[in-house]
Amino acid sequence: MKKHTILFLAANPSGTDRLALDREARAIQVELERSGYRDCLEFVTRWAAEPLDLLRELRKLKPTVVHFSGHGGQDMTVEHRPNQAPRRYVIGELGGKQGGLFFQGSDGRAQVVSTAALEETFGAAGASVKLVVLNACYSEPQAEALLAHIDCVVGMGGSIDDDAARNFAIGFYGGLGERESVIAAYKQGRAAISLAGLRDGDRPQLKVREGVDANQLAHADGNVLHAVMLHDALRDLPAPECRADRIPRGLKGLVGEIWDRAASHEGVRVGLGLLCAAQEALSLDVLAELAGWSYDEKDRFVRDARQLLLEEPASWAGVEAYRPRHDWVRELIAERLGVATLRAHHETLSRELATWPPPADATRRSYAVRHALAHRIAVDNWSGVRELASDLGYLEARAHAVDVFAVEQELREAGARCPDPDVARDLVDLARAMGRESHWIRDEPKEIAGLIWNRLRRSGWTAQDLETRITVPAEVSFLRVRHAASRESASLERTLDGHASWVRACAVTTDGRRVVSASDDGTLKVWGLDAGRGLATLSGHTNSVNACVVTPDDQRVVSASRDGTLKVWDFKRGCA
Description:
22 helices; 20 strands
């Protein structure tokens, strides 16, 4: 099953009480690693979080859980007694009149993020988030406000001691890691405060969105998606049938019950199977064409399968399209269908929609370019995979649709999976050629035919091999190598191109995945070695950069320049 990301945002700006946020993050990590479902959860930390980091990480990570740890503000002055243990509030003028959460500003000091700003941010970019924990003092008003967009939010009803906040997190995430319900995990978090002999056990407050009640959460096995889907499933039932004892246990049970009702009709079963195999949302007209439906069957499909579907407005040529509601729902439907049936749906999509040469219709062409290879791999059609991958017109279209590095990786993975040694060898050779010419293809994808043809020729393919195994579009012409003569080593994999002047130094991270280069153009560049992709440009020196080194923990780069300075760079943030 797909991993669920827990995003941990920590902020302890200068001028505020020092909090042991690192101990809290470590304690949560330990609890999750001890849990029986640790493989389903990914814990990601972001330190010294600035306001825009929240928006960026919501977009980038699409987390299921967001945890803020730090200081909260309130609208009244609180007396802070000397020698009192650190507490998670900001007082006085800094706390603001309306209160909020305190992130770190660009100057390192506290910057308030108001309740309204938090609500707007989660409304704009928090669609993936099902649970928010605000482990900061006086955060109950923010928790209430976020219910407009989030199913469950934990906030603090007053000030809370740092140790109590940490112990709540230990108990709470220990429960989630064992797939306890959200309400059970919340109770365990409060219990953990009491077990430690601490006060403030009554400060954490769980807020649940209207329509998602405790009974639903208790049967959700810790999965809030279960509660949301159940709310939709019960919405149309008569009141006497909406009883807690009829709620299926766990997401698998709920999806199974909805599936059994919807898939009793063959047309609905076929439609769900096709959407399960499809690589993106499909319109009803396309689905009807693939499934062979009559007009009435389209309406029945939407009515009966609605609870398992997510509608994407204007997704397919300007009209709404449908896909399974969640990756978990897709996996559970696939399990019900069985391998043979799902394979048959991939074959249908490969034959009717993901065709090559592609359809004339722009939307269908886009689908074919993006997913033709995936559908052929899914049905183990390795001759079809080789035919498609060796079509230089397809490779050009694919490089335009995604990027050259993604195409190279697809070919490598296909070659590693292919059981036919001859086909596998061709796929790997094509991947190597893509990698070797990636610095040119990146800028000029339309030149891919000549670049790949000549690279294969120089790597040992004969002219006859190329004529019989490589397809060149009829409208494409280029100069062809007749006699391969190269001084390059056969072990050369790729060229990293992007600096505007000489490269003076480079340093490789300890994990061997990235390299940093220093140049006379005054910049450093970070590259991914696996794909050769430029990951970041570090700008700030005013003269050539002569040397660089990566710290042993792979977190920082130190550079030396002719401008008379050394600079320390944060790898993740890409700044000095």
